Amino acid sequence: MVQQVTRGIKISVETSFEGSFYKNYKIQYAFGYKVTIENQSKDSVQLNARHWKIYDALNNIEIVSGEGVIGKKPVLKPGESHIYSSGCLLTAPFGAMRGYYSMINFTTTKKFKVIIPTFKLSAPFAIN
């Protein structure tokens, strides 16, 4: 698990290898990840958007941006957490992801970025 705190917002990420399959005559490696967003600050905040960079071992980079996470824009009061699971496909048995969440602080009305720390994605058979 990787963790990082930005402006009182703690991000924790756990990953899993879900398997492989063929799609359009190419092998795809499926990975899952569970993100916990914990508000350790004294202010209420809302997650408005996400921005990901997904890397694989073949130097492919995919950028994913969008509103919220899994169709939600969670509001977190001090001490609250939001947990969600998602996944991605890679064309190699290992890679990495990193990014940030765009959030707003309801007390100051200021927007800010919360760093999602780089986390590795690796199929167990690819690790030596």
From TrEMBL:
Name of the protein: Co2+/Mg2+ efflux protein ApaG
Residues of the ApaG domain: 3-128
Gene: apaG
PROSITE patterns tied to this protein: APAG
SUPFAM superfamilies: ApaG-like
Pfam families assigned: DUF525
InterPro entries for this protein: ApaG_domain, ApaG_sf
Provenance organism: Gaetbulibacter aquiaggeris
